[in-house]
Each structure stands twice: as C-alpha cells, then as structure tokens.
C-alpha cells in the first residue's frame, strides 16, 4: 500500500509539472499570436498609407489632400517629398518589424541624406515625425526618429548635398 501511495504522489507531482509546462506553452502561443496580429494590423495600415500616397502621386490634383508641408513648395517638389516620405515609411516598417538593424538603418539614411531633396524633406517634415513620436506609445518610433535626426545631422556636417541636377549625365555623354 505504501508503494502504491508513493507512486501515486510521484505521478501527481509529475502531472502538476507537465500541466504547468503546458500552461506556459499556451501563454507563449497566445503572446506570439498577439504579436503576429499586431504586425498584421500594422502592415495593413502601412499598405493603406502607401496606396493613398501612390494614388495621390498618380493623380496630382489629389496632392492637396495630403498633409501640407510647413513651407510652400512647387507641385514637383511636393511629389518628390511624398516619395521621400514613402522611403522613410518603408524603413520605419522594417525597423519596427526588426527586418533592419540600427546599423543597417544608419547606412540607408546616410545614403539617403546625400540627396538635397531628402534633406529638404526632413527639414520640412522632421518636426511632424518628432511630434508623432512624442505622442505615440511606441518607443521604437522615437528611436527611429532619433536615428533619422542623427544621420541628418551627420549629413549636414559632412558638407553640401548632391543636387538633383548631378544625379544623371546627359544622354550624349
């Protein structure tokens, strides 16, 4: 009888242990599903933003529906700024989803800010990004904006940007 009682108690302890492990598995699975749902929701929201901007770029009369920049620009500059916004938004997505490292983002931004148009966009719209970061509960947005500001400052300190007229050679050259 004592042997059966000891075996029963050992089985009971193992049962409690395995039940706890199973419960941890359920909790981990739910946490993973919640993260995946959040990623999916963000991807849908970003895709919607991208589609709206691209649609406005294809229909210049709709550019008036986009957020106005703090300073007046030509229609061509507004289209270029909207396109620059798409680049930063894409890199923001990659950063938030951890598809790009901090160092990888720095490399992209360093190249990006060689462009006079990219610098002009950040000069005008950087305050909007910073404001969004300040009111957001997402710390990674704040970190992203800090990195963009950092690389913008590095670009400014490195000297003049490449003007758009120097991007391409003439067809005769």
Strand content: under 5%
Element pattern in H and E: HHHHH
Class by helix and strand content? mainly alpha
The radius of gyration computed from the alpha-carbon positions, rounded to a whole number of angstroms, is: 26 Å
Description:
- By secondary structure, this protein is an all-alpha fold.
- The chain has two domains: 1-66; 74-173, no CATH class.
- Helix content is 75%, strand content 0%.
- Helix 1 packs antiparallel against helix 2 and helix 4 packs antiparallel against helix 5.
- The model has no long low-confidence stretch (mean pLDDT 85).
Q: Could you outline the blueprint of secondary structure elements for this entry?
A:
Layout: H1 2-58, H2 75-96, H3 102-112, H4 116-135, H5 139-158
Which characteristics define this entry?
173 residues; mainly alpha; 5 helices
């Amino acid at each position: 009888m004592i042997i059966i009682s000891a075996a029963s108690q050992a089985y009971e302890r193992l049962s409690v242990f395995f039940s706890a492990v199973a419960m941890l598995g359920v909790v981990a699975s739910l946490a993973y599903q919640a993260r995946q749902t959040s990623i999916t929701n963000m991807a849908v929201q970003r895709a919607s933003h991208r589609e709206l901007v691209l649609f406005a770029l294809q229909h210049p009369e709709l550019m008036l529906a986009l957020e106005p920049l703090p300073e007046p620009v030509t229609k061509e500059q507004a289209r270029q700024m909207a396109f620059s916004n798409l680049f930063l938004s894409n890199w923001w997505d990659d950063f938030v989803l951890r598809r790009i490292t901090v160092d990888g983002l720095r490399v992209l931004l360093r190249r990006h800010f060689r462009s006079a148009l990219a610098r002009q966009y950040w000069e005008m719209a950087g305050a909007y990004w910073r404001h969004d970061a300040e009111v957001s509960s997402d710390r990674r947005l704040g970190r992203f904006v800090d990195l963009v500001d950092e690389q913008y400052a590095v670009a400014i300190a490195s000297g003049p940007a490449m003007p758009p007229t120097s991007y391409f050679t003439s067809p005769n050259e």
